[in-house]
């Protein structure tokens, strides 16, 4: 029975399971039939969105590849998938990609373009027409000091304005220099470099040698040049009509007496160095040839070589009268015994170093004596002529805040070589060329002798030999030499010389002065002659030069300062006495 029941229950359970499967299939078919329409719409939207994304990705890839080909790309452009940000929400890259207008307000401002961190290419809108982005208000910044809140920026703007002003001033100066030299420089650096280059486009050199100053030294040099075979032309500059009249009255020649022989030279031209009027406009000086005719007005053609032998205190006024005839290519040869004349000429006559002629300093040791005739002199003892070219110094400053440019030119110009070469051909002059420092040492020794013999002879009113035989004069001389030695050994430009203190020791200087006094004997010094005549002396270029250098270095020299004031005071008293003198008939 049990088995029958079991068998009867088995088909019933199969029928029930079949019914369940049929009902489940019907439910699934009904669910599908109910949801078929909504799934088709979603699938269509997904396909459209995917197509849009593919289009955007393709356009972005084409733009990035073109940029990489043109500019080489950047680190972020090389592999955008590898370097994509891990957090796509809120990063600057994502903001730039999906909101380019918003990123404009976040990017730092740049005067050239808007920089980005991830690449030089920024996602642009799909519009074909380019639209000018609206610039935020904070980018409308103007370089106006009033609108600048930062004090440091204000200072930088003021410094920039000063530099622009300095550049304009330099350009104006360069135009003046270019106009004078006939050159055009593109920049200040080109102009500075041109200073070290020889000028090849200048006018040809005029070989005529002009003589300014017709004292004993000037007449002797002019006479020696004219005596050369194939000598260059020599022109004598005269500043007074009376001097021209004496020139013609004495045969228009210079006479030099050597022993029992008279040497005469007539190969000269004369010119007036200052304007003066004649009593008769048709006045002439017949009997001396057509080359001796001249006018009262000085000529205007340039002077290339000039020898100056005037008294030092008259040099500035003499050069001012012919300054318009001197150029920066001219050469001036100063022949004097003192120091400080070149500095005075720079200050009073040629203050601009770019328009300044070339200087040559010289010193003559010949013993010459004048006579009653104006153009006749006596050579008592031969000597030598030492000369040295003074280095030209150029000091320029590019802007107020820039360092100064200093240039020292030691080269010899064409005019300087021509002049010194001509003097070297003269055997009577025994010309020797020295370096600037060697010449300075030699000139200091001559200056010390002139600062001792001349002033002491004026104070004691005696001949040169009296200074050796008078005990008080000898003591004064030794005390002055100690001051001079201490000053010269302290000069900064001489510190590199070996044995400086031995050369300028008081004993060595005293031996030099005693030797000069023994050679001069009972002669009267030039300073004493000028003081007795009521004329000015050259003491400012002897003791005055030492006094100026001592004050620059802070060295006390009370004896030298007192001697300087004594000589100047005595000269002023004698000049006043000569001017107040009224001649009477008994004096004739």
From TrEMBL:
InterPro entries assigned to the protein according to its UniProt record, in alphabetical order: 6-PGluconate_DH-like_C_sf (IPR008927), 6PGD_dom2 (IPR013328), Ketopantoate_reductase (IPR050838), KPA_reductase (IPR013752), KPR_N (IPR013332)
Family according to the record: Belongs to the ketopantoate reductase family.
Stretches for region Disordered: 1-95, 110-135
Biased segments, Polar residues type: 1-16, 56-68
Cross-referenced Gene3D superfamilies: N-(1-d-carboxylethyl)-l-norvaline Dehydrogenase, domain 2, NAD(P)-binding Rossmann-like Domain
Compositional bias (Basic and acidic residues): 17-43
The name this protein goes by in its record: 2-dehydropantoate 2-reductase
Molecular function GO terms recorded: 2-dehydropantoate 2-reductase activity; NADP binding
UniProt xrefs under Pfam families: ApbA (PF02558), ApbA_C (PF08546)
Superkingdom in the source lineage: Eukaryota
Every Ketopantoate reductase C-terminal domain range: 443-570
Keywords from the named record: NADP, Oxidoreductase
Keyword Phosphoprotein: no
GO cellular component, one term: mitochondrion
UniProt domain Ketopantoate reductase N-terminal: residue ranges: 209-372
């Amino acid at each position: 029975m049990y088995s029958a029941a079991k068998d009867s229950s088995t088909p019933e359970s199969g029928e029930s399971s079949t019914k369940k499967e049929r009902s489940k299939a019907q439910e699934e078919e009904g669910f599908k039939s109910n949801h078929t329409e909504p799934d088709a719409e979603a699938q269509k939207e997904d396909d459209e969105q995917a197509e849009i994304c593919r289009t955007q990705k393709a356009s972005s890839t084409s733009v990035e590849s073109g940029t990489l080909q043109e500019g080489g790309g950047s680190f972020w452009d090389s592999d955008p998938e590898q370097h994509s940000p891990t957090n796509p929400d809120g990063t600057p890259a994502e903001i730039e990609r999906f909101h380019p207008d918003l990123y404009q307000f976040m990017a730092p401002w740049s005067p050239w373009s808007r920089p980005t961190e991830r690449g030089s290419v920024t996602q642009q809108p799909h519009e074909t027409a380019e639209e000018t982005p609206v610039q935020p208000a904070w980018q409308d910044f103007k370089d106006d000091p009033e609108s600048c809140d930062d004090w440091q920026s204000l200072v930088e703007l003021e410094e920039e304005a000063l530099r622009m002003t300095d550049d304009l001033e330099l350009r104006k100066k360069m135009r003046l220099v270019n106009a004078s030299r006939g050159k055009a420089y593109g920049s200040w650096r080109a102009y500075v470099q041109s200073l070290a280059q020889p000028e090849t486009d200048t006018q040809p050199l005029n070989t005529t040698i002009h003589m300014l100053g017709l004292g004993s030294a000037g007449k002797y040099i002019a006479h020696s040049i004219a005596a050369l075979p194939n000598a260059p032309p020599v022109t004598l500059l005269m500043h007074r009509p009376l001097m021209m009249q004496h020139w013609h009255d004495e045969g228009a020649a210079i006479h030099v007496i050597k022993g029992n022989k008279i040497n005469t030279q007539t190969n000269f031209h004369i010119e007036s160095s200052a304007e003066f009027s004649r009593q008769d406009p048709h006045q002439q000086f017949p009997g001396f040839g057509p080359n001796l005719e001249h006018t009262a007005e000085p000529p205007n053609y340039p002077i290339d070589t000039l020898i100056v032998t005037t008294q030092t205190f008259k040099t500035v006024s003499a050069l001012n009268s012919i300054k318009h005839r001197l150029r920066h290519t001219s050469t001036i040869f100063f022949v004097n015994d003192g120091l400080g004349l070149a500095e005075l000429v720079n200050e009073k006559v040629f203050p601009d170093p770019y328009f300044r002629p070339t200087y040559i300093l010289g010193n003559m040791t010949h013993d010459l004596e004048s006579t009653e005739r104006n153009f006749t002199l006596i050579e008592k003892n031969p000597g030598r002529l030492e000369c040295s070219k003074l280095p030209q110094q150029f000091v320029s400053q590019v802007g107020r805040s820039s360092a100064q440019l200093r240039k020292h030119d030691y080269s010899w110009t064409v005019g300087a070589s021509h002049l010194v070469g001509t003097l070297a051909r003269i055997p009577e002059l025994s010309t020797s060329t020295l370096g600037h420092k060697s010449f300075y040492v030699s000139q200091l020794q001559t200056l010390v002798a002139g600062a001792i013999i001349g002033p002491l002879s004026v104070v004691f009113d005696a001949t040169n030999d009296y200074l050796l035989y008078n005990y008080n004069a000898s003591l004064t001389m030794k005390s002055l030499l100690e001051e001079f030695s201490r000053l010269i050994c302290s000069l900064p430009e001489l510190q590199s010389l070996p044995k400086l203190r031995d050369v300028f020791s008081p004993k060595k200087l005293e031996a030099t002065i005693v030797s000069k006094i023994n050679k001069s004997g009972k002669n009267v010094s030039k300073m004493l002659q000028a003081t007795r005549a009521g004329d000015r002396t050259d003491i400012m270029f002897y003791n005055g030069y030492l006094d100026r250098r001592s004050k620059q270095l802070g060295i006390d020299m009370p004896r030298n300062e007192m001697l300087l004031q004594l000589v100047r005071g005595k000269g002023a008293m004698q000049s006043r006495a000569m001017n107040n003198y009224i001649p009477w008939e008994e004096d004739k």
